[in-house]
Design goal:
It is a single chain. Strands 3-2-5-6 form a 4-stranded antiparallel beta sheet, with no helix packed on it. It has a 3-stranded mixed beta sheet with strand order 4-1-7, with no helix packed on it. Helix content is 63%, strand content 12%. The protein contains 9 helices and 7 strands. It has 2 domains: 73 residues, Immunoglobulin-like (Sandwich), CATH 2.60.40; 208 residues, MetI-like (MetI-like fold), CATH 1.10.3720. By secondary structure, it is of the alpha+beta class.
Length: 327
C-alpha cells in the first residue's frame, strides 16, 4: 500500500514538472534577443517609427522569431546621417551592426584642422620661396640689363632654362638627380638623400627667381631712358643711378606682377607633394586614401587655396592704388 502511494506521488511530481516546462535532463530554452551596435556608438534607436529611449549598444529581449523590425539609428549631432535597416528576427541570439556615415559638411569640418595645418606649411614654403626668388630675381634682372656680356649670357641661360622646363621636372632634378652628384663629390660613391623640404624650397626658389628676373627686367626697361641720362649728367655712377633713380620707379610697376607671381607660386607649390613633402595636397592625398571620399576632400582643398589667395589679391590691389596716388 505504501509503495503504491509513493509511486502515485512520484508520478504526480513528474507531471507537474512537465506541465511547468521544466523537464529533467533537458537544457533551458535559449531566449530570442537582438543586440544592436553602431559605429560611432551612442546612436538613438528607433523601432518601427517609435523611439525606445535607448542608445547603442543595446540588447532587446523576449522577441518572437520571424518578427520583422524596421530599425533607424540616429546620431544625436546633426552631422550624422540616419541609417534605416530592416531586421528579421531568428531564433536565439541576433546581432546587427550599423556604420553611421558622416554627412559631407561634418566630414569637411572633421578634417578641416588637419588641412589647415598643412595649409600653413604650404603658405610658409611659398613665402620663403618667393622671398628667395625676389632676391635671386632682382640680381638676375639687373644682370640682364647691365652692360656686361658675361653677366647677360649667364643670366639669360638661367632664365631661359628655368622658364623653358616644367617645375615638376625641376623638382625631380633637384630631389632625385642631385643626391648622386653630392655623393660623388663627397667621395662616398652612394647617393646622399636630400630632405623633401630642402628640395622643395630649392626648386621653388630657383623657379620663382627666373620669373621675378623677367619682371624686374621689364620694370627697369619700362623706365624712360632719359631718367638714366639725367642721373648720369648729375654726376651719379651707373650703380648709383640704378639704385636711387631707376629701381625706386620700377618698384611701383613691378608690384602687381610680383603679387601675381606669389599667387601662382602658392598654387604651384602643390607639385612638391610628388616627393613626399607634407603640405596641403600631400595631406589631402593621405586623407583620401584613408577615407575614400575624394569629392569632399578636394573641394575643401580648393576652397582653402581660394581663401589663401584672395587676401593677397586684395593686398596687391590696395598697394597698387596707394602707389598710384603717391605719383
Amino acid at each position: 500500500m505504501k509503495l503504491k502511494v509513493t509511486l502515485i506521488l512520484i508520478t504526480s511530481l513528474l507531471l507537474c514538472l512537465a506541465v511547468s516546462g521544466i523537464v529533467l535532463g533537458e537544457p533551458d530554452v535559449e531566449k530570442t534577443t537582438l543586440t544592436i551596435t553602431s559605429d560611432p556608438s551612442g546612436a538613438d534607436i528607433i523601432i518601427n517609427g517609435k523611439e525606445i529611449g535607448k542608445q547603442t549598444p543595446h540588447t532587446l529581449e523576449n522577441l518572437q522569431p520571424g518578427q520583422q523590425l524596421e530599425l533607424v539609428l540616429k546620431k544625436p549631432p546633426l552631422f550624422k546621417k540616419s541609417v534605416p535597416k530592416k531586421v528579421t528576427i531568428k531564433p536565439g541570439k541576433n546581432d546587427v551592426f550599423v556604420a553611421i556615415p558622416e554627412t559631407w559638411y561634418y566630414y569637411m569640418w572633421l578634417y578641416l584642422p588637419t588641412l589647415l595645418k598643412a595649409a600653413g606649411m604650404t603658405l610658409f614654403l611659398t613665402i620663403i620661396a618667393v622671398f628667395n626668388g625676389i632676391i635671386i630675381g632682382t640680381l638676375t634682372g639687373i644682370a640682364r640689363v647691365v652692360h656686361n656680356k658675361i653677366l647677360n649670357t649667364i643670366a639669360g641661360i638661367y632664365v631661359d632654362f628655368t622658364r623653358g622646363t616644367p617645375l615638376l621636372v625641376q623638382i625631380f632634378m633637384i630631389h632625385f638627380g642631385t643626391p648622386p652628384i653630392i655623393g660623388h663629390l663627397m667621395g662616398t660613391g652612394n647617393p646622399i638623400p636630400i630632405n623633401p623640404f630642402v628640395s622643395a624650397l630649392l626648386a621653388l626658389s630657383i623657379n620663382s627667381g627666373a620669373y621675378v628676373a623677367e619682371i624686374i627686367r621689364a620694370g627697369i626697361q619700362s623706365i624712360d631712358i632719359g631718367q638714366m641720362e639725367a642721373a648720369r649728367s648729375l654726376g651719379m655712377t651707373y650703380r648709383q643711378a640704378m639704385r636711387f633713380v631707376i629701381l625706386p620707379q620700377a618698384l611701383k610697376r613691378v608690384i602687381p606682377p610680383l603679387g601675381n607671381e606669389f599667387i601662382a607660386m602658392l598654387k604651384d607649390s602643390s607639385l612638391v607633394s610628388v616627393i613626399g613633402m607634407e603640405e596641403l595636397v600631400r595631406r589631402a592625398q593621405v586623407i583620401v586614401t584613408r577615407t575614400y571620399r575624394p569629392t569632399e576632400t578636394w573641394i575643401e582643398v580648393g576652397l582653402i587655396f581660394l581663401l589663401m589667395t584672395i587676401p593677397f589679391t586684395r593686398l596687391v590691389a590696395y598697394l597698387e592704388r596707394r602707389l598710384k596716388t603717391s605719383d
